[in-house]
Amino acid sequence: MGPDPISLVNTARRDLQTLVNLVSNYERTKDVTILSNIVKLSLSIYDNAINAFLAVKGIRVKDPEHMSQVAHDFIPSEVASADLRDFLIKCLSQTDCNDDYISARIGELGRLVDYVHSVSTHSAIHRGL
């Protein structure tokens, strides 16, 4: 049995609130350490959402490197773009990351978590998860 999708989504939703607070702190201070923490937490939120989505849909992926790609075959592009995780990884590895663009991508991350929450709660009602 894989990870519990409801727990993963709940963790992602909690972490999103922490992320909002970090962004607010970053906007006041422009502290690069906070920006780094924003990106790291964003990656964790993204991974939890994708893992929850795959678990709810009953999709197993052998290679973790392909999880995001497989999930985005099923997630509408207006919810989250397929390159969101790649963007976050790139941002984490660079010292110069556009903080305005990060804020926009965090909004996208919020839409992804909301979508996965909707899918997982719908599934829980109908399947008794």
Tell me about this structure.
The chain is mainly α and 129 residues long. It has a single domain, classed as Four Helix Bundle (Hemerythrin (Met), subunit A). Helices cover 74% and strands 0% of the residues. The chain has five helices and no strands. The chain has helices spanning 5-29, 32-57, 67-71, 84-93, 99-127. The protein is globular. This is PaREP1 family protein.
Q: How large is the share of residues in beta strands? A: under 5%
Structural class by secondary-structure content: mainly alpha
Instruction: Please summarize the sheet with the most strands.
Output: none
What is the CA–CA distance across the termini?
Answer: 12 Å
- The CATH C-level class name: Mainly Alpha
Using DSSP, what is the number of strands?
Answer: 0
Helix proportion: over 70%
Q: Averaging pLDDT over every residue, what do you get?
A: 86
User: Unreliable stretches, pLDDT < 50, 5 or more residues?
Assistant: 124-129
Instruction: Tell the overall outline.
Output: globular
What order do the SSEs take from the amino end to the carboxyl end, as H and E? HHHHH
Q: How many structural domains can be distinguished in the coordinates?
A: 1
How many H/I helices?
5
CATH architecture: Up-down Bundle
Work out the radius of gyration.
15 Å
CATH topology: Four Helix Bundle (Hemerythrin (Met), subunit A)
